[in-house]
Amino acid sequence: MMADIAATAGMMPGLTTADGRPLKTALAEAQAKARRRAFLLVAPLLLFIVFTFVLPIGQMLQRSVYHDGFSSAAPNLVAWFGANPRGTEPDEAAFAALAADLKQMKADKTAGAAGTRVNYTLSESRSLFTSSARGADKLEPPFKEALIALDDKWAAPAVWEAMRSAATPWTADFYVIATDFERADDGSLQKVPENQQIYLYLFGKTFVLSGVITFLCLLLAFPVAHLLATLPMRYSNLLMILVLLPFWTSLLVRTTSWIVLLQGQGVLNNVLVSLGILGDDGRLEMMYNQTGTIIVMTHILLPFMILPLYSVMRTIPPSYARAARSLGATSWTTFRRIYLPQTLPGIGAGALLVFILAVGYYITPALVGGASGQLISNMIDFHMDKSNWSLAAALSAMLLVGVLILYWLYDRLIGIDNLKLG
Amino acid sequence: MALPVYASPLERVWHLTYKVICVAIFVFLISPILIVMPLSFNAEPYFTFTEKMLTFDPEGYSLRWYDTLLTMGMSAPDGPRDASWWEQAWAQSTWIKAAKNSVIIGFWATILATALGTLAALGLARAEMPYKRLIMAILISPMIVPIIIIATGLFFFYSNPCSPVNGILGLVDVSLQCGRLTSTYIGVIMAHATLGIPFVIITVTATLSGFDQSLIRASASLGASPSRTFFKVILPLILPGVVSGGLFAFVTSFDEVVAVLFIAGPEQQTIPRQMWNGIREAISPAILSVATILVIISILLLATVELLRRRSERLRGVSPA
Asked: Which of A40, A196, B37, B225 falls 20 to 30 Å from A306 in CA-CA distance?
């Protein structure tokens, strides 16, 4: 309506408001004011979210490409690398710079941090730095011979290549590690040996397990949602409580309950043993492994599948199915050709939501996953725990990109304003 | 859903199977929640039904695990249960302390999330709102982004909240240091408010979709100020949505453990944090008694939200069947 008025005002330039201003400008001002007012209502929350959410994550992402552990502790070497191009054989000046930096590292106790940074590019470098820094005070010129006498690794070109790479704080090395690559002696990238490729495998496993969980949720949610959608309201409202109660119950409570139910000496195993179905030594291992993660996560995410499916199924008129039957379709054909296609929006919404939530899951795999049921979130936590912060940040960034793509897809296909709770 | 009269025998069999499957799924949904209740009254330190429990022998049942909740962490748990004992329990018990923390943090996080979220939802409901889709996407994203990423980000950020300023002013050599937000109540409250905000936005926006915007103009034409319009016209009508959004935010905070693990100190231990400890380290049936209490709380919350939803539907003229 506003646009119509604006168009009309544009066609008739003679129109003015009561105080003599052209109608077009007056309207534009009024609309700008309305926009400002609307924005002002959102502004406080936006500021808050920027402070507690956008900035922290942005800062963490910066950490994935920035690590000044070496570059800040070794100014002399940084200067030498700056003055000499890649491939220069380290000369006496380079070793003198190294000796000076090692002495300073010993005084500042920064050898560990510097070594850690180089260690990301070339493994086993950390000990080289810490042990050499301990002996740094005794170093005399000529430094090249002295340092190589201290540790012959200093003669290796790979060490110098790694230090050159660490001499700038901005680096892509953490993404190199997080995608299972390593630097060869000449600085080129190569895949790490098959048995050490953990990160991409874990990403793959996380996505596969999330897919399995999403599929199981769909399988379990479909009949329940259908039942709820077709029962008379007073029954379905009652049964709905059975769906909503798990949704409202603490995640830790649900995880605890599953441990109680499924562990080796748990309720289910005890029942099966006392019924004679299982022998006492044949107890099922359903907890602290991948099976545990799948069962518990399916249970926890099931309501997120049932609710969108239900809200779509409720709007499907039963007359379509009846029409199909009256035209001679079998009940299977009716389901496949008439009912199922109409539920697709609900299936899409539920499946995407469950998948997005599953990919980033942390608590449940950490508590019931054991060794085989860990997901990528747990790996991020592991590296945070070990203070490999930049590597944790790089893994987080990769996970974040994956989740944001799915989120964008969700917004395109379903629209976030269609997200409903309970 | 009754079967039509023309159903074939095969369809009848399938219909019965379908019902059995549905019952089984409902059992899967609800049994883990119910199983903890009887087990929390176990007289033995086991996580399974003892023989005495199965024969309903009163000796098989006891309240000892509920008692542990009071006595754990007390310096003198064995004294007579007089007023001073209860006072001591109130001040010293680990679980009571955790409960207090959970309530304090949950309360303030809810207030913060609900106030800011409701205001923002009002702005987002206006037709003139610029960049609506993008802003909505940003405000909902704390629900979508994996919690471990948020917690990791906050862990770094809270150790020096001024650091982004240093980054922005990187050209000038400043390194501002300001107080840490890690191990503070304010830090945890802000983190939990952030996690609760998407729920408030979603529920209040849903309520506002049925709200007649011309009422605002009517109120203004009658001379009411914007704030009066809000408190006298808008708020009473969207209150059910605001309250259920607030309850969602509270439950989110009340159940949150990862952010607490990363940014809270020993003073801010909450109930989920204690449960986390209990499950990971010394698993004891005391966990089950906490779980039972939490299940009862969630039943009460669910009932409240359901009542509010029906009231809201009535107000909007959607009749619940």
From this structure: B37
Tell me if B146 and A360 make a contact (CB, 8 A cut-off).
yes
d(CA A83, CA A76) in angstroms, rounded, equals 11
Calpha distance A145→A139 (Å, rounded):
10
| Among B8, B148, B175, B213, the residue to mutate for chain A (most A Cβ within 10 A) | B148
For chain B, how are helix, strand and coil distributed in percent, rounded to 5? 70, 0, 25
For residue A392, give the nearest of A405, A377, A380 by alpha carbon.
A380
A280-302: per-residue pLDDT in tens? 788 888 888 999 999 999 999 99
Q: Is the pLDDT of residue B82 over 90?
A: no
- What is the predicted pLDDT for the residue at A11? 52
Give alpha helix (H) positions in B40-63.
51-54
Nearest by CB: A31 against B25, B128, B305: B128
What pTM does this model have? 0.88
Distance from CA of A305 to the nearest CA of B (A): 13
| Arithmetic mean of pLDDT over chain A | 87
pLDDT (tens digit per residue) in A253-282: 999 899 888 888 888 888 888 888 888 788
Question: With 50 as the cut, is the pLDDT of residue B320 above it?
Answer: no
Chain B interface disruption, residue of A260, A315, A335, most B CBs within 10 A: A260
Query: Would the CB atoms of A416 and B137 count as touching at under 8 Å?
Result: yes
Nearest CB to B25; choose among A224, A256, A267: A224
Q: B25, A356: Cβ pair inside 8 Å?
A: no
Mutate to test the interface with A, among B128, B147, B254 (most CBs of A within 10 A): B128
Residue B96 CB neighbour total at 10 angstroms = 17
Helices (H), A109-195: 111-121, 125-134, 143-150, 157-166, 173-178
CB < 8 Å to B288, chain A: 256, 260
**Buried b / exposed e along A91-127 (16+ C-beta atoms within 10 A):** eeebbbbbbbbbebbbeeebbbbbbbbbbbbbeebbe
Residues of B in contact with A260 (CB under 8 A): 35-36, 39, 47-48, 288
Q: How far apart are CA A393 and CA A375, in angstroms?
A: 16
Residue indicated by tokens 């820094």: A133
DSSP-derived letter for residue A235 is: H
Instruction: Please answer yes or no on whether A399 and B146 come within 8 Å at the CB atom.
Output: yes
The pair of three-digit structure tokens given for residue B243, joined into one six-digit string: 């309250």
The DSSP annotation for A398-417 comes to HHHHHHHHHHHHHHHHT-GG
**Contact flag A223-B299 (C-beta cutoff 8 Å):** no
Q: Do A384 and B305 touch (CB under 8 A)?
A: no
Alpha carbons B94 and B100: distance in angstroms, whole number: 10
Nearest neighbour of B298 by CB, restricted to A44, A248, A393? A248
- Amino acid residing at B259: A
Positive or negative torsion for Cα B142, B144, B150, B153 = negative
In the 3-class helix/strand/coil scheme, how is B14-25 assigned residue by residue?
Answer: HHHHHHHHHHHH
How far is it, in rounded angstroms, from Cα A277 to Cα A261?
17
The predicted model gives A166-173 an average pLDDT of 86
Cα–Cα distance, B111 to B113 (Å, whole number): 6
